[in-house]
Design a protein that fits this description.
The complex is a heterodimer of chains A (243) and B (234).
Chain A: H1 9-46, H2 49-64, H3 67-81, H4 94-97, H5 100-125, H6 129-137, H7 142-172, H8 184-195, H9 199-226, H10 232-240
Chain B: H1 3-45, H2 50-65, H3 68-89, H4 100-125, H5 129-137, H6 142-172, H7 184-195, H8 198-227
Helix pairs in contact in B: 1-2, 1-4, 1-7, 1-8, 2-4, 3-4, 4-6, 5-6, 6-8, 7-8
Classes of the chains: A mainly alpha (243), B mainly alpha (234).
């Protein structure tokens, strides 16, 4: 095992850029994807029939095809067609549309939206109808019922599953090494090509991924325990018991 | 679409369908080996010997915590080097060329086995204890109990997880294109690059994968009805 290349600032910069890009991809597509997922879930439960069918088709296609194929579809397929459209290269969006990061984030956002959308849909459907009826009885508006009762209760039910989805997202980030985007795997591949060391760079980022998975799991665990109403049973019951 | 791109699609349809067949072959073989690895892994995790338990837990934990693509690349290099070393130790000389097919199957099966271990462990733990004790009381041997009681009793619990893993595996076969193995997606990438019709060919690839996943959904639904026969409420 030869890790002496780690002292080279050149390789350090590769790894650091890869690490930062990985974190950014997870943060951007995780938050945008979860927002999309709520929309996907609600559109299928409450949306007008054509919209519900459209969204159903979207989740089926995204969940039925490999992420790698989707990434190439957007980056190589859509990305190469865009410059041909007149005016696109002059538009303000062009720096964004030229950036491989955009296509990575787009692909992962849609993926999180489809997979987590199904999870949230199931959770929203399993919120007891009596709780929503109680909200109506208290005179809450439809919007208030949605964001003060239905969504918090649904998300509370599926938080552990969403944790799993976020870890899946983290683990799919190395796919972007196949497009022109520097992530940890791409950095390791570059180190491998230049130093002819096969295992050391790969094992190093395997360790980094292991650590990131552990940190992400611990972080999500914290969210799970802090989430409003996550552990209500014990403290409230104690307060209700006499003496 | 103009007629030129249609010609390109027609010309590439043969190789692409051949790639799709290779993808199915890889997936089926890797799944079969993954099932066996999963049973062994679950057996190890549930065994009374601590060393075996630690081995099973280590396998499933480490593999499941790492990105599939990273594992595939790592195992691709490690696997070919280890096999060459083993070949040399057995008296063979020179480089042993393992086929890309064997590497692809082996790597995917190894990853699949770790996830399958957890599915089987959960399913076996969910078997009511009384059923196993009844088998013991009737004097079943361990092997016979495993074949006649444990497997049929755990399958209804394991099948949803197994079908999920099959879908993940079918989609993961696209990852072996990264190590240069010629399956469906690798062929599609070549087709797209040579005709410059990227959008068209990636859409075709997506459609073919969709046919595979939706088709196997129907098969798994039938299998689930079969293993749940005789259960209340179906």
């Amino acid at each position: 095992m030869d890790f002496s290349w780690l002292t080279d600032p050149f390789y350090q910069r590769y790894l650091w850029t890869g690490f930062v890009n990985t974190l950014w991809l997870v943060a951007v597509s995780g938050s945008l994807g979860l927002a999309l997922a709520v929309g996907v879930a609600l559109a299928q439960i409450r949306g007008p029939r054509p919209l519900a069918l459209l969204v159903r088709g979207f989740t089926t296609v995204i969940r039925g095809t490999p992420l790698l194929v989707q990434l190439f579809f957007f980056y190589d397929g859509v990305g190469r067609l865009l410059p041909a459209i007149p005016g696109v290269q002059e538009s303000l969006l062009w720096p964004l549309l030229r950036d491989p990061f955009f296509y990575g984030a787009l692909t992962f956002t849609l993926s999180v939206g489809a997979y987590s959308g199904e999870v949230i849909r199931g959770a929203l459907l399993s919120v007891p109808p009596g709780e929503l009826a109680a909200g109506r009885a208290f005179g809450l508006s439809r919007w208030q019922i949605l964001y003060r009762l239905w969504l918090p209760r649904g998300i509370q039910m599926c938080l552990p599953t969403l944790t799993g989805e976020m870890i899946l997202l983290l683990k799919s980030v190395p796919l972007v090494s196949t497009i022109a985007l520097m992530d940890l795997l791409k950095a390791a591949n570059l180190v491998r090509d230049e130093t002819f060391l096969v295992y050391e760079p790969l094992l190093l980022i395997a360790g980094i991924y292991l650590a990131m998975t552990l940190v992400l799991t611990a972080g999500m665990r914290l969210v799970e325990t802090r989430f409003p109403g996550a552990r209500p049973a014990r403290s409230r019951r104690r307060r209700l018991l006499p003496g | 679409m103009d007629s030129a791109s249609n010609d390109g699609l027609l010309a590439w349809m043969g190789p692409i369908l051949h790639g799709a067949l290779t993808t199915v072959e890889i997936a089926v073989l890797a799944y079969a080996i993954g099932l066996a690895l999963g049973l062994i892994g679950a057996g190890a995790r549930l065994s009374p010997w601590p060393a075996l338990r630690a081995l099973g837990t280590g396998y499933s934990t480490v593999v499941r915590a790492m990105p599939e693509l990273l594992l595939i690349i790592l195992l691709y290099y490690a696997g070919s080097q280890a096999l060459t070393a083993a070949y040399a130790a057995l008296g063979g000389d020179g480089q042993l060329a393992i086929g890309g097919f064997a590497t692809a199957v082996g790597v995917l099966a190894f990853v699949q086995g770790a996830y399958m271990t957890e599915v089987f462990r959960g399913a076996i733990l969910a078997i009511p204890r009384g059923q196993l004790e009844a088998a013991d009381a009737y004097g079943f041997s361990r092997a016979c109990r495993f074949r006649r009681i444990v497997i049929p009793a755990m399958l209804p619990n394991a099948l949803p997880g197994m079908s999920n893993l099959w879908l993940i595996l079918v989609k993961d076969t696209a990852l072996v294109s990264v190590i240069g193995f010629e399956e469906l997606f690798f062929t599609v990438q070549q087709a797209a690059a040579s005709t410059r019709e990227y959008l068209l060919f990636y859409a075709v690839a997506g459609a073919l994968y969709l046919v595979m996943t939706l088709g196997s959904n129907a098969l798994f639904a039938r299998a689930e009805r079969h293993v749940r026969r005789g259960q209340a409420g179906t």
